[in-house]
Amino acid sequence: MTATKRIELALGPCFFNWSVDQFLDFYARIADEAEIDRVYLGEVICGKRMPFTDTVWPQAIERLEKSGKTVVLSTLAQPVNKRERTILKQQANYDMPIEINDMSLLPSREARPFTAGPFLNVYNEASLAFLSKRGAIAWCPPVELPLDSIQQIAALVPEVEIELFAFGRLPLALSSRCYHARAHGLSKDSCQFICERDPDGMDVATLDGKRFLAANGIQTLSDACHVAALTADHLHTSGIQRLRLSPHMSDMVAVSNAFREFLDGALDAAELDAQLERLALPGPLCNAYLKGEAGWKKTSLPA
């Protein structure tokens, strides 16, 4: 009888403009205390932030690898100039696991293994099979893809590991413009890195004051905090090997430990939700994209 493989937990790349000290403290604690198997790190959202955070990654990688974590370098999702495209080509040749978030990086990787990130427009088995032939060994589907579709794709492309976005504000879109700067009367070119004021994203409300979305530089995220409370049995049935938790200012060690207890059967879905809601999340819970409904809603998921 073959033992069922344990569902792993991954920590996704931080989308927000945190300081160097915040990053180093954060990853040191993840290394020492978190129930995390794999950590993605690197600047994904805004190339203007890269000169400030580039010094963080070697130290963080060393600390995480010493603690036994698998570390993957996440790459920029929307390169906009020659400098950023040059950096991506250099990163493609790094001798370490990488996550590709923009198709322009694919030729430079030259069929070596990579993770296909959630910013790639991969919505069917043909697209994933195309990437698999060019080196994709894992895939984090776009967050709006329903669970039924993910299950079908996983069954048709079984050679690629599936990693489901399971916690955090949903990464919905990227823009060539910076709404965050504009909201403060600044242009993108002279933004003064105003996004650093909102370490979980800037809340955006409708004209009548209802919570709506969040802005993070050029990125639009959900207001609500997505939680995929799917049991290990359900994940195995769906062809999913790993859950991805997206970093926020909430206690991510407590978040990861709660998910580990849930996957191991020590908590049920209601208890997981209750534990997470006590952690000062950036928004209310949601999960309805998994059922093909409006993503801001909270609905019951099959056990």
From TrEMBL:
Top-level taxon: Bacteria
Coiled coil: none
Keywords: 4Fe-4S, Iron, Iron-sulfur, Metal-binding, Ubiquinone biosynthesis
InterPro entries: Peptidase_U32, RNA/ubiquinone_mod_enzymes, UbiV
Cofactor(s) needed for function: [4Fe-4S] cluster
Binding site for [4Fe-4S] cluster: C46, C178, C191, C195
Spans traversing the lipid bilayer: none
Pathway(s) annotated for this protein in UniProt: Cofactor biosynthesis; ubiquinone biosynthesis
HAMAP family: UbiV
Cross-referenced PANTHER family: PEPTIDASE U32 FAMILY, UBIQUINONE BIOSYNTHESIS PROTEIN UBIV
Function: Required for O(2)-independent ubiquinone (coenzyme Q) biosynthesis. Together with UbiU, is essential for the C6-hydroxylation reaction in the oxygen-independent ubiquinone biosynthesis pathway.
Subunit: Forms a heterodimer with UbiU.
Family as reported in the entry's similarity comment: Belongs to the peptidase U32 family. UbiV subfamily.
Descriptive protein name: Ubiquinone biosynthesis protein UbiV
